[in-house]
Amino acid sequence: MIWAMADLDDEQLRAGYATFNRGDIEGALSFWHPDAEIDRSMNFGNPGIYKGLDGVRRFYESIFEHYSEFRIEPDEVIPAGDKMVVVARTIGRHRLSGMEVTAQEINVWTMREGKAIHVQLFPDRDEALLAAGLDPTEVDSPVR
Fold this sequence. Notes:
This protein has helices spanning about 10-20, 25-30, 50-65, 125-130; strands spanning about 30-40, 50, 65-80, 85-95, 100-110, 115-120. The chain is an alpha+beta fold. The chain is globular and about 45 Å long.
């Protein structure tokens, strides 16, 4: 279920995903605010906090260093004021083993002036909704 949102930020977020999915790192960077921060401290595989456009670039490059193919497919985008909760599937082909890896990723994005200023990874949907200021009992779950 993709929530409709009459906000340019939602469109820009989706365009940023599409650009990233094409492997266009420089193009994807144009969707980020210069003071951006990616908080992946809760990630077991690649924990860290990446600051500024150089940090975002390093994060992107680390993905493509380990995966010959990688894409993120948003399944659910839930608006929450200046934030958006994105439930997505990540699909990648590991560069060394050739194995395809699929995982769910749940992020809370904060937008400023039409650009991504902060994104934080969460272990589950309800925790992400709470961090975005939403009550999980009041947000419909997608039908699968």
